Amino acid sequence: MRSLQDTKFAILELAPVRDDQSVQFSLHHALELARHAEQLGYDRLWLAEHHNMDGIASSATAVLLGYLLANTQKIKLGSGGIMLPNHAPLVVAEQFGTLATLYPNRIELGLGRAPGTDQVTMRALRRGRQETEDQFPQDVLEILHYFKDAEPQQRIVATPGQGTHVPVWLLGSSLFSAQLAAKLGLPYSFASHFAPRMLAQAIQLYRDNFEPSEYLERPYVSMGVPTVVADTDQEAEFLATSAYQRVLGLMRGQSLKLKAPVKSMDGLWSPAEKMSVDSFYAMAQIGSKATVKAGLENLLAKYDVDEFIFTCDIYDTEKRLYNFDLLMQMKLDT
Hints:
- This protein is an alpha/beta fold.
- The chain is about 45% helix and about 15% strand.
- The protein contains eleven helices and nine strands.
- Strand 6 (about 190), helix 7 (about 200-210) and strand 7 (about 220-230) form a beta-alpha-beta unit.
């Protein structure tokens, strides 16, 4: 069985906005986390694209990546992901090609096929465009083409972008992207940090159908894992109430700003809502270092993934950074 030491550790950052702080504070904290992750030895940190959500500040993903790249030294940074139906493939290729030209071998492009927002905002994002999710495979192929060396007489050349060979990942929470990633021979990251239901089926489908490519010789799988790690199980359970309130807000169509932890969720959610939050966080690892280490080892035994990509919705920024300290200690102590 794969050990934690043999498993890559990464971070998925949504630049969470606290209810008592500004968006600017969140963006600066994203850089603080990137620097911290680099110092700790994390393999990569990705930003997620979401729109019209008051608690998530990473909507202009490529712009924020430029800020992080300019102020870090070596950690790989990327998108987890760019929601491709919202964008013209050429524009995405030029944005990430620019980043790759400025910061060689440090930028990665994870692509998703969902809008990352509600229907009204989706229409605002796609104004004047007719693209739908059904075009996703063709759009992925187009982006891959823009990153390759230019062909003779190629009419549209991504500048910058052409010849940068930016690594491309496919992301998903269903079987569609797993099948496409297998067909194209691309690495695959499953969004089990919020939609874990089809994780095992998607991974199996991807591995069974994987076709080696110029990008990858064998299947490579990453899975999202929400984490709240603290010195004791009791403290972690207390800190996790911020994450529970955030998901509750999502389910109710309310604010997604991070709220301070509470002593008990009793009275804040109904039994049905608690079940929904528990389902949302089915892969979450909450507890002390020993508790979470055992939980991660169980996930490895069950899914045998190549990489964990961790999310964390802890309210206190220092405790949030400490969460990632404790996770890396588990890997190094193995």
